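Quick one: structure tokens for this chain, please?
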Amino acid sequence: MNELFLKYGCNPNQTPSRIFMENGDLPIEVLNGRPGFINFLDAFNSWQLVRELKEATGLPAATSFKHVSPAGAAVGLPLDEVLEKIYFVEGVEVTPLAAAYIRARGADRMSSFGDWIALSDVCDKATAQYIQREVSDGVIAPGYEPEALEILKSKRKGTYNIVAIDPNYRPEPIERKQVYGITFEQGRNEFKIDMDLLNEIVTENKDMPESAKIDLIISLITLKYTQSNSVCYAYGGQTIGVGAGQQSRIHCTRLAGNKADIWWLRQHEKVLTLPFRPDVRRPDRDNTIDVYISEEHDDVLRDGMWQQFFTEKPEVLTQEEKAAYLATKTGVSLGSDAFFPFGDNIERAHKSGVSYIAEPGGSVRDDNVIEVCNRYGMVMAFTHMRLFHH
């Protein structure tokens, strides 16, 4: 099959719509559902991300995509007790592939609501069971265990989108797209991201542990498939904050840093012990946690409101408590898809516990950026490779 007709394009008024191959057959098979135009944009971008993560780390990989950018990406490292709690998987069977998706989904649960999922490996039962309980549009993987496929087919009253992709498929080296009736053509971005990319350390501190290298690789490969400008924070084998599609680098750093802060603060004792009512649904719980952590906490704690979510009124998590808690966090890795033009990006990154940075370098203010890194004892590598994606 070399073409597949879709319901419509990005919006309902954009018809007709299809995906097709000019030469040969499509490398995918729709096993269930009817994926749309945006679904396939997410599917093909997300599949490339997890395939590269698996090749670079040797670990199962997963990503959670929304509107052609990752909300989260991760590799299949074990979950500790705190992560099991903040990801709501206590007592759940967790395989390495399931751990990768649980981490990817948990990086930014607000943004991942209704996501598209990509898995680097054949989907197993444990991963399918976790996907089944989350609000999601579809999944792409190189295959599905029979029991996993049946679990996923039961999702969304039998309409859940399930796509299998040929893992051996390799696209043509030249890619094209049309904008306003004009065809653009370029060589595919086949740049390989691996540990060798981190060899040129330009800061005084040159101590970069293997765990930080893995996190930086996760960050950079994530950025390769994130709408630019983009910055990505990573920790412990997963992204914890992705800032996508901003016009200025500092806004990327702030956006991603704010998401990283929320990820950290979900582990604060006051958040872990929030007395939720048992009938509060998972998405409502996620929204409530996000508001509770934010400066708008009165929206869920004021009289007449807190009873909707909690069995008793929680204490406020104060600005001072949040700042003190975040000040204890270090070891975060940060990647940028282009050079940092000013040291203010490093100042903001420091507030979210960043200790390791990878960026292309090449700014006329590189000296200033390096100076700020040295002030905080950070380790920074120049990759000399821009990773813009549009």
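The chain is about 35% helix and 20% strand.
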